[in-house]
Specification:
The protein has helices at about 15-25, 45-50, 90-100, 120-125, 135-145, 160-165, 180-190, 225-240, 260-275, 285-290, 310-330, 335-350, and strands at about 30-35, 60-65, 70-75, 100, 105, 150-155, 175-180, 195-200, 210-220, 240-255, 280, 295-305, 355-360. It is of the alpha/beta class and about 375 residues long. It folds into 2 domains: about 15-85; about 135-360, Vaccinia Virus protein VP39 (Rossmann fold). Strands 6, 7, 8, 9, 10, 11, 12 and 13 form an 8-stranded mixed β-sheet that branches. The longest helix is centred in the last third of the chain and has 22 residues, at about 310-330. The radius of gyration is 23 Å and the shape is elongated.
Length: about 375
């Protein structure tokens, strides 16, 4: 029997699970190792179920010591082969436990759960749809923008979730312009062989005049101040060809007549909750912003802002993805506290928050 005894008590939380899985790979089948930790690692059972289908569940582990200062558990190795490391389950587990996506560092991975920007915290927890109106509003946006056989530019593509929706529709070309190098690396893996991703500024893309048929931006103008909003829309207008379409999916305040003092309160509450200086506009203000740069609004669609509601999470992530996200919340206390605070803010202001998709055309 193996005498190997990995002690993870002094490790940082993100390093513990990868270390434990490495430890499981060391003994031969039929041997065991003793894990030392500073809390009961009972949630590891789900991890072993994914990667080692023949490993024992938690009830089959042998507890040698059960707190309060230390837990020591003998874990027997009953399966020799890890499932393919390229399966979606294993890739997703690696992303969640190491802060990487497909080998690429997730943005904000070096920040604590308390300090991370809200959208990157959700990504760290395994959430892949980060847009306020969910995947269905994104699909409505792409349908109205008509990306098939078009030269498409996506601003701030994040982790590539929308790029994965665009590519099957057969654009002529795809270019992503992403300000975060880590996010750009993640999107490159999504579009490999079918498009390119550049690290750049949405307000100064470096793309030629009149070079795009469609420009798409989701949940990024909301995060900009007024001057930056205008600079980005001006850049889009420059890059679009005549009759080109600009498609946005953003957070909106409602109704259009919402008093300024309420708008200010909501923006301040959002900034505190998501650690980003979010500045959503009303639907009318979003339309006016686009019109101010010579674009003609053709389509507007709105849905409730329900990003962290269970039904929306299941619709966006699927049942397995939703369960995975919920499991991560259960085992990561600091992250759970942040997400619950975000959800409380969204719920408190749910009558004044919506998601809006707008498609506007540059006149020919």
């Amino acid at each position: 029997m193996s005498t190997y005894e990995p002690d993870v008590r002094q490790l940082r939380k993100p390093d513990k699970h990868p270390t434990i899985f490495t430890a499981y790979a060391a003994p031969a089948v039929g041997e065991s190792f003793v894990l030392a930790n500073n809390h009961d690692p009972r949630h590891l059972g789900a991890e072993f179920d994914i990667d080692y289908p023949d490993s024992p569940d938690i009830s089959g582990w042998e507890y040698l010591e059960q707190g309060p200062q230390a837990w020591r558990i003998r874990i027997s190795k009953l399966s020799a082969v890890l499932k393919s490391p390229d399966t979606p389950k294993n890739l997703l587990r690696q992303e969640m436990m190491t802060g990487r996506q497909g080998g690429a560092q997730l943005p904000g991975a070096d920040r604590s759960d308390d300090a991370a920007q809200g959208h990157w915290l959700l990504a760290r927890l395994g959430k892949r749809v980060l847009r306020p109106g969910g995947v269905e509003l994104t699909r409505t946006l792409l349908l109205r923008a008509d990306v098939s056989r078009a030269d498409v530019v996506e601003l701030a593509p994040g982790l590539g979730r929308t790029a994965a929706e665009i590519l099957p529709k057969g654009p002529r070309t795809y270019i992503g312009v992403e300000g975060d190098p880590d996010a750009a690396d993640a999107v490159r893996r999504v579009v490999a062989g079918h498009g390119e991703v550049r690290v750049g500024d949405a307000a100064d893309t470096g793309l030629p005049d009149a070079s795009a048929d469609v420009v798409i931006g989701e949940a990024m103008l909301t995060m900009q101040g007024d001057l930056a909003k205008h600079a980005i829309v001006s850049e889009v207008s420059r890059v679009l060809r005549p009759n080109g379409r600009y498609a946005i999916h953003e957070l909106a305040l409602t109704p259009d007549t919402i008093p300024e003092e309420i708008s200010t309160d909501i923006r301040q509450a959002l900034a505190r909750a998501i650690k980003v200086n979010a500045r959503p506009l009303t639907v009318a203000e979003w339309s006016q912003l686009l019109a101010g740069h010579g674009l003609v609004v053709d389509h507007v669609a709105t849905v409730p802002m329900a990003l962290l509601q269970p039904r929306r999470i299941i619709a966006d992530e699927g049942v397995i993805g939703a369960l995975r996200f919920a499991r991560n919340l259960l085992v990561q206390r600091d992250a759970r506290k942040r997400v619950l605070a975000m959800r409380a803010t969204f719920r408190k202001h749910r009558e004044q928050l919506a998601a809006v998709a707008i498609v506007a055309t540059k006149p020919g």
